[in-house]
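User: Okay, second chain of the day. Same drill as before: sequence in, structure tokens out.
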Amino acid sequence: MSQESQNFNDNQEIDLSQISKKIGGFFEGISNRFFRGILFVKRNLIVLSILVVVGVIAGYILDKKIKQFDHQIIVLPNFGSTDYLYSKIELINSKIIEKDTVFLRDVVGIKDAKKIKKIKITPITDVYKFIENKAENFELIKLMAEDGDIKKIIQDQVTSKNYPYHSITFTTTKLTSNEKSVKPILDYLNNSEYYKAIQKQYLYNVNNKIQANDTVIAQIDRVLNSFSNTVNSNKNDKLVYYNENSQLNDVIKTKNDLIYEQGSNRLNLINLSEIIKENSSTINIKNTDALNGNLKYLLPLLLVFGFILLAYFKKFYSKQLLKNK
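Assistant: Same drill. Structure tokens below.
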């Protein structure tokens, strides 16, 4: 029994010794590689320094020449024109990809058409605006949420296209202005005979509604004035109960509802002045993503990395050549 115990302890000591040697060898290998790296830098210090300087200068020059600017237009599509809006933006983007500057310049009207690189449209997620004063939309969201993740439903393409506001973003390689890019894009989007006809009829209906509501409000005012005159000419205790035995409260409520509706209608007339109504625009935001403006840092690293890679390839090639001789 003691002999077996002694053998077990010896085996444990051997295993621990081997593990210790492997760990030591691993760290020694790392230190050797690190030292060889120092020697490589020392041998090629002048070349590496030249590459860094050249990379910084070339990157700085390229950063000055290669610039990109982002621009955003927030729009409100009216008269059910959301799908029309998306299809038009996709068409413009396809022409940009095809480098069809004739279409972009002559049809869309974009000046410096060669300088525009891409355009896209995305909905501005605002579920509160989606359900505001729209009970059917609220019920729809509730119904869809019962069968799935509410976050996915809110961001779903079908749902998000029904949000009121959408963001059109495009990129150019030089500074632009509203006259050169934003206005031509909006003019192109608003150039639809079909939606112009719908807009005309819609505005006619809204104006008629405003006039009709004004007439009803004037009639209600006459009723209220008549009642006020009656109260003033017949002041007695019985008239205290007159308000409870009449529909005066309903008349006053109707007037308040009509006044609120009139306010909404007049605000709508502002938004309905265009098929695709511009809410706001922001232009000439310098794009600093990825390589833009960072070449003076990235180019030296790429040159140094390429030199090191080439040196190791030459060393590998030389070793393989000696093996094959």
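The chain has three domains: 2-64+294-323, 68-191+279-286, 199-271.

User: Thanks, on to the next one.
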